[in-house]
Structures are given as structure tokens and as C-alpha cells.
Design goal:
This protein is mainly alpha-helical. Among the domains are: about 60 residues; about 30 residues, no CATH class. The chain is about 65% helix and about 5% strand. The protein is built from six helices and two strands. Strands 1-2 form a two-stranded antiparallel sheet. It is flat and about 105 Å long.
């Protein structure tokens, strides 16, 4: 091995390694500088979490909402508009011209289809391997 060893070749091979190490060192220095400047003024985790929470809260906030011709900016007003909307959406109202007797008569006249006993038994039976293979393929 000593026959083929030359100082020039060794230096030529080591040069890219040193350059790479220098690049990594600069990246680490930059990252440490950013961390140091970010945390320099106080508690490390507190500032980071507060900043992230502020960004997340701002991203999830509704700044204003339009109702009719007005724009509402107050959190209470926005919540009230959403509450009214949901109440209206999930409240069923029967028109005044339809009586309870009309509804009952309508429901009595509906013919609801019924399963035959053999169909019900087939639906209640365990799933077979053939059915599973058919469903998968």
C-alpha cells in the first residue's frame, strides 16, 4: 500500500470531504444563530408555543361575517348569527295550512314494503368467503 500512496492523491481525496464538512458547519451555525436570536429574549418553549398558537388562532378566526346589508365584526355577533342559522337549519317547521290530522292520514296511507322471511334470513346469515371474494374483486 505504501507503494501506491502519494500525499498529493490523499490531499485531493480529502479536499471534497473538508469542503462538505465546511458546508455542514455553516448550516449548523446558521441554524444555531436563528435559534439563539429567536430564544434570546426569554423562555425558549414559551415564546415558540405562543407564536405558533397565535398563528393557529389567527388562521382559524372568522374576522367578520355579512348578514343582510351589514358586516359584523364582534365575536358575540358572529356567534349569534351562526347560532340563529343552525337553529333555523335544524328546526323543522310545518306550514300552518297542514294539520296534524292530514299528516296522520298521509302516514296511514303509505304502503311500507316488508321483507319476505327468506330474504330476512339471508340478510341475517353470516357472510360467506365467496361473498367476500366477490366484493373484493
Amino acid at each position: 500500500m505504501s507503494k501506491h500512496f502519494s500525499k498529493e492523491k490523499f490531499q485531493e481525496l480529502c479536499k471534497p470531504k473538508f469542503n462538505l464538512r465546511e458546508i455542514y458547519n455553516k448550516k449548523v451555525e446558521y441554524a444555531l444563530h436563528r435559534l439563539k436570536s429567536f430564544y434570546e429574549a426569554g423562555e425558549k418553549t414559551g415564546k415558540l408555543l405562543a407564536r405558533q398558537l397565535k398563528e393557529k388562532t389567527f388562521a382559524n378566526t372568522i374576522p367578520f361575517i355579512k348578514k343582510e346589508d351589514r358586516q359584523l365584526f364582534s365575536v358575540k355577533d358572529i356567534n349569534r348569527v351562526f347560532q340563529q342559522y343552525c337553529e333555523k337549519l335544524y328546526t323543522s317547521s310545518i306550514p300552518s295550512y297542514i294539520s296534524q290530522e292530514d299528516i296522520e292520514q298521509f302516514l296511514l296511507n303509505i304502503e311500507v314494503p316488508k321483507l319476505q322471511p327468506q330474504d330476512a334470513a339471508e340478510l341475517e346469515s353470516p357472510i360467506t368467503e365467496a361473498e367476500t371474494r366477490k366484493a373484493v374483486t
